[in-house]
Amino acid sequence: xxxxxxxxxxxxxxxxxxxxxxxxxxxxxxxxxxxxxxxxxxxxxxxxxxxxxxxxxxxxxxxxxxxxxxxxxxxxxxxxxxxxxxxxxxxxxxxxxxxxxxxx
Length: 104
Known about the structure:
Blueprint: E1 9-10, E2 13-14, E3 54-58, E4 81-85, E5 96-97
Antiparallel strand pairs: 1-2, 3-4, 4-5
């Protein structure tokens, strides 16, 4: 039985949720609570353009021995699971995921 949860830790250190700009709330915000936050107008880098991803779409026809609940919406359209390879995820490892598909 778990008696106490000290929070998410990686190698014994507190894991910090993703944010911009990077900051450690245990050290960088102790003097000024606004440290680590964008408080002035700023510019953003232009978006990167990638070639289209290879879409992989799986549905009940691909798993004939598996019972899919009737009317199950699942992810994507009508029970189809969409996965993209490459495309906008070409520069991450692994370069595959739901949000990598051309039409998530």
